[in-house]
Design a protein that fits this description.
- The protein is an alpha+beta fold.
- The protein has 3 domains: about 170 residues, Ferritin, core subunit, four-helix bundle (Ferritin, Up-down Bundle), CATH 1.20.1260; about 450 residues, YVTN repeat-like/Quinoprotein amine dehydrogenase (Methylamine Dehydrogenase, Chain H, 7 Propeller); about 80 residues, no CATH class.
- It contains 12 helices and 36 strands.
- A 5-stranded antiparallel sheet has the order 3-32-31-30-29, with no helix packed on it.
- The longest helix has 29 residues.
- The chain is globular.
- The protein starts with 5 loop residues before the first helix and ends with a helix.
Length: about 800
Amino acid sequence: MLKFAPSVRHRLGASAAATVLLFASGALAQQAPIVQPGAPGQATRTLNGDEASRIADNRYSADDVKFMQDMILHHAQAVEMANLVQERTNTQAIRDIAGRINASQADEIEFMRGWLTERGETAPNPAEGHAMASMDHSGHAGMDHSAHAGHAQMAGMATPAQMAALAAASGEAFDQQFLNLMIAHHEGAVTMVADLLGRSGSAYDPVLFRFVNDITSEQTAEINRMSLLLRERAGDPRSTLAAGFRDAGQAEGNLRLVASLPKPTGFFDPANPEGLPPPVPSANDSDDTPASPSGQFGRRAPFLSFANTDMAFSGDLLAVGNYHGFNLYRLSDASPEPQLISSVVCPGGQGDVSIHGNLLLMSVESNNGRVDCGRQGVGDGPQADRFRGLRVFDISDRANPVQVGQVQTCRGSHTHSIVSADSRRLIVYNSGTAGVRDERELAGCVVGLPGDNDTALFSIDVIEIPLADPSQARIIDSPRVFADDATGAVAGLWRGGDHGEGTQTTSRTDQCHDITLFPDGNLAGGACSGNGILMDISNPAAPRRIAAVNDPGFAYWHSATFNNDGTKVVFTDEWGGGGRPRCRVQDPVTWGANAIYDIVDNQLVFRSYYKLPAPQTARENCVAHNGSLIPVPGRDLFVQAWYQGGLSISDFTDSANPREIAYFDRGPISEQHDILGGFWSVYWYNGRIYGTEIARGLDVLELTPSEHLTENEIAAARMAQQGETVNPQQQFRTTWPAHPVVARAYLDQLTRDGGLPADQITAVSRAVDAAAPLIDAGSSDTAVAQSLRDLAAQVGGSGADTASRRRAGLAETLIGIASRLS
């Protein structure tokens, strides 16, 4: 930890004294009044030589002084917490942490007090309490101290109630509280340093600059040690997986990885497939010798990105988007491993895809996207060759896709959603989230302000694609779906900023990231940066907002997923933009999470949050991302990507009490570097779960029976009738055939939750067992059919609770089986 020798402080003091003498000697040469004007209406104040010298002293600032004063008290609370350890826990690792704190922070407090005293500033004594009111800032009388409201608001400080609870705890409870509080406390110190360094003229003193940077490095290292302790204590195998690109540790829970494909040739850098930052060569290297690591690494992003993104399915076709283009695969029931058909190089990011018939649509947002799919990028300024918007490809020849249409948009295309289709045209909603392009490059692209009706912000694009001639695709409207209902102002929803102390800073609502469609209910769920919204899409070309919600814990509303009957919607929060570690032990469980809403009378009613329950490391970008329903009848199951947090399957049938039932995870790509990776999207399709791994490739998984999910439920999901095509952000109601397997799935659920008397479960099971071989053989049996109808009349439910809905589903299935046997 940090140690500062007394001689350093003495030298600083001597230097300061010499500087004062120098100024004083100069002042003797010529005398004149020195004054400091006050505010308008206030008298001018006359200053003596000492006061004037202090004001002119540029070696340190009022921010430096306040930082040191605050950090003394901040350190003192850490020592106070550490002093509680000895009598409350025998955990050696906790005792070691407390020992390091006591050994280092007392010395740092001494240094900070000395630094302040040598400059004539008040140096608080922690032994006298934490009151700051008596501090004298007159030494820098001309400086503004209002930026610091007091130590009570210092980042990471435990409240009196938290300190009392810690003092009252012991054993395991004490260890948990101590680690949580101390991690937050250390992070607060790092935040205070960052705040100081962000202020003009701060930390000019080189010794102070070194000191604050050492605080950051030492406390960050301690945070990592404490985080590891908490992850180990969590007892979840996902929390301590070994790092690696192809050889990372893996953890499976009620899932089995059945295939894992690397990225195809042309979609990774062969010299650096992991995407590691390049090492900075040592200064001793010459041009004719191999570079040796200097311990430092480049920080700039490469020109091209090869990140895998979203997926779309149609029949036996899987399209995998990528910032570099897309890849087409053939799927087979016989083998879980997709077979590569073709790789299409067309950079531009982020490459989200969807399919309609022989057309593939792809979103393009990056400034380096070109009309001709070239890899060389585009120059600065307005460029005719730049493409940002929606591409249309003809994939009737899957081995040779052809670009047949383009729609340029003002903010590009981050994602898109196919709203409707008939024999003539597609209607597509486009969501652009990047900056507005130059109006000289594309007419009508005005940045504007929230009150400017001409701005390209605060809208979505409605695109029409004629099926007979996709080259004529165009924007037909840009509805103001965020407008104020009363005034018509285009910026009618969240204006950006936090929601009060202790809340998130939520993005301004001037865009939608995702718009998910539920055509069977004429609904769309918009995850729109600062709000979650519900839209009526009865007229697909003219969506109309009917509900909006926000959340003080959401940073960026990212995606929306309905349940199968359109009575619930899951919104996700992409806190940190997807590239940050937001699943650490110290991260709030309601930030970067899912928010689950019931839809009641076309309004959104909040029920609960769900976040990946397994803590991840600081090297793993992790936050809620894309997923889909798993079509088990009678249940609302959601398989979801969490970037390097892996995938998690949650059951939100009870929307107020979601719970995890399965997972798959790998360790971080690198133990040393922050590498973007993990699952971008995970979707269920025809009995398997497919996942685009951003850095590694494509994974295929299958469910395994467990106490949470039976073989019958898994088999019923495989029978689900989801339609020929499954696109992201497009949900059609799933149905199931009238089959004994589906009936058994309902019976398993009713048995598990006690939703049906045991004698009725036995009777129905016998009747279903009798019907199964008849159904398989295509035979009929009127007696068995009548028995099933009689049982359906007995078990059917009409209530709104889960058990009643399952009984109703079982009864409907029994009647359907009976019809097949009649």
